[in-house]
Design a protein that fits this description.
Layout: H1 3-9, H2 22-25, H3 36-40, H4 54-57, E1 69-85, E2 88-99, E3 102-109, E4 117-131, E5 134-142, H5 149-157, H6 162-167, H7 173-178, E6 182-186, E7 192-197, E8 205-228, E9 232-255, E10 266-289, E11 294-301, E12 305-319, E13 326-330, H8 331-334, E14 340-347, E15 351-360, E16 371-381, E17 386-389, H9 395-411, E18 414-426, E19 429-438, E20 450-462, E21 465-480, E22 495-511
Antiparallel strand pairs: 1-2, 1-3, 1-22, 3-4, 4-8, 5-8, 6-7, 8-9, 9-10, 10-11, 10-12, 11-15, 12-13, 12-14, 14-17, 15-16, 16-18, 18-19, 19-20, 20-21, 21-22
């Protein structure tokens, strides 16, 4: 964890604003989304195939198609959040519309019966891998640490003089310094000797964190798969990730004593962040159908390379009572009313998926199949997320990203996800159930983090039309940090997050 000292405190003056490791986790730790059928069986689609979601999990699965179909998926979710911050319970919720896997599959049989390649299929699809639409809100009493202390670290470890404090950190410490939340410290001779926060931590402060987030992690996939002797299926998909993320943050600390003579009443920090990224990646897979009813699958998702452009605006209001009264400052006023910008690339972690399915009454005629059981195990190397520069700000930026990447390796780890599901057919109706477990990405065992999904759904297939409906519930355990401090300075405080996400997904498809 020592690398966090370098990340959170060495904010170089050439940087417009700093990044956090959580930005890499946003494109790695999410539950499976797709068609209603895929969600109903817990996302255990790796060896099963026959669904357009395969294009985003194991593209070999589209090789089972010998005809063409058009698919649409639309749904809704509701986040029910429960937070406990330093002994104070908080709750909020947020509901939104979403979509799942949709697109077109074109299947073609080989007219030459003696050839090894029996059929091939193309697919163009889009899927919303993750939704960022949420409300993170909690508050509590704290007599241990303050948001303002990250500014003290920023200035101290950059050896910033007062001129630097006035101008070089316009999205962070400069706002605090100009509003007198951060003040200078002088030695016995009156010479400048560092900085101090005016927040009366020892007597306690009330902290209030509110963030509204929007956006999503979307993926366009162009896939191709081939069927060799109706036994081996090989496939690959070229993926284009599209990531949009917005956060409106409103954070306040206020004096818990209401003492009018301690030079601090409150400060309020506001931040508006907009981020957009586009990239490229590759997914490869194979499925083997045994002579019995078993199917075995393997897939690998190479890292995606996503180029981001971020824009940020921030402002601060501080009331130091009899010291300097109410002062305000904003990044706009210090940056010619322009948002701060940064450009960088995120390399996402790789994934490896091994899977197996058992099909009841396995036959080429899917109408005669009676159902299946399917299971996937997925390894995700969360600590493999990497940041790199795409601008031309010199070696200092390169050094910063090196430290950031070392921090990612320190605080995250690789972990496994388990998925299992099944279907029973009563033509033309099918009933489905599924479950999934997503392990913690954090290297700190004290952080309780996981995702547990249970799901169920029904499907109707008849005369080239299919309609699937699924309801799922994801039980959440996570941690939310209002700010990060160097662990060599103070232990970080965070809100424990529980609650659930409820999903409804409807998929309609047509045979062409």
């Amino acid at each position: 964890m020592k690398q966090y000292l370098l990340l959170t405190t060495l904010f170089l003056s050439s940087l417009a604003f700093a990044q956090t490791p959580e930005e890499g986790l946003r494109t790695a730790w999410f539950t499976q989304n797709g068609t209603a059928r895929n969600m109903a069986i817990g996302g255990a689609m790796g060896s099963l195939g026959g669904d357009i979601t395969s294009n985003h999990i194991n593209p070999a699965g589209i090789g089972l198609f010998k005809t063409s179909e058009l698919v649409f998926s639309l749904g809704a979710l509701k986040n029910n959040n429960e937070f406990n911050y330093r002994g104070t319970a908080n709750s909020n919720d947020k509901g939104i519309m979403k979509y799942g896997a949709m697109g077109i599959i074109i299947g073609m049989t080989n007219p030459y019966k003696n050839e090894a390649v029996k059929s091939s299929a193309f697919s163009l699809s889009v899927n919303q891998l993750a939704s960022y639409n949420n409300r993170i809100s909690y508050k509590g009493f704290n007599n241990y640490s303050s948001f303002s202390e990250q500014y003290l670290e920023e200035l101290k470890y950059d050896n910033a003089d007062t001129n630097a404090a006035l101008s070089n950190y316009i999205f962070g410490s400069t706002l605090g310094f100009r509003t007198y939340l951060i003040d200078t410290v002088n030695d016995a001779t009156g010479k400048f000797n560092g900085y101090k926060s005016l927040v009366p931590i020892s007597t306690g402060i009330n902290q209030d964190y509110n963030a509204l987030t929007k956006g999503g992690y979307h993926e366009i996939a162009l896939g191709f798969a081939t069927n060799v002797r109706n036994q081996w299926y090989f496939g690959g998909s070229l993926t284009i990730p599209l990531v949009s993320y917005q956060r409106e943050l409103d954070y306040t600390e206020s004096d818990a004593t209401n003492n009018p003579n301690n030079d601090f009443a409150y400060f309020n920090y506001k931040e508006s962040l907009k981020s957009f990224g586009v990239g490229i990646g590759l997914k490869l897979g194979a499925i083997y159908r045994t002579n019995t009813s078993w199917r075995l699958g393997f897939a690998i998702h190479t890292p995606q390379f996503i180029s981001f452009k971020d824009k940020i605006r921030s402002s601060m209001i501080t009331n130091t009572e009899n010291f300097k009264g109410v002062r305000t400052e904003s990044s706009d006023a210090l940056n010619d009313f322009n948002a701060g910008e940064r450009k960088y690339t995120v390399t996402t972690p790789y994934r490896v998926i091994a899977s197996a399915s058992y099909v009841f009454n396995e036959t080429e005629n899917t109408q005669k199949q009676r159902g299946f059981l399917s299971a996937d195990i997925e390894f995700v190397n969360y600590r493999g997320a990497r940041f790199s520069r795409t601008d031309e700000n010199g070696d200092a930026i390169t050094g910063y990203y090196k430290k950031l990447n070392n921090t990612v390796k320190d605080i995250y780890k690789g972990n496994v996800n388990f998925k299992i599901g099944g279907e029973l057919k009563f033509n033309p109706v099918a009933i489905r159930l599924g479950a999934a477990y997503y392990g913690s990405p954090y290297n700190d065992d004290n952080i309780n983090a996981s995702r547990m999904v249970v799901s169920g759904g029904v499907g109707y297939r008849n005369k080239g039309l299919f309609i699937d409906l699924t309801i799922s519930q994801t039980v959440i355990n996570d941690a939310q940090f209002p700010y990060r401090l160097s662990p060599e300075f103070k232990a970080n405080t965070y809100a424990t997050q529980t609650g659930d996400v409820r999903n409804v997904m409807l998929t309609v498809g047509f045979k062409l």
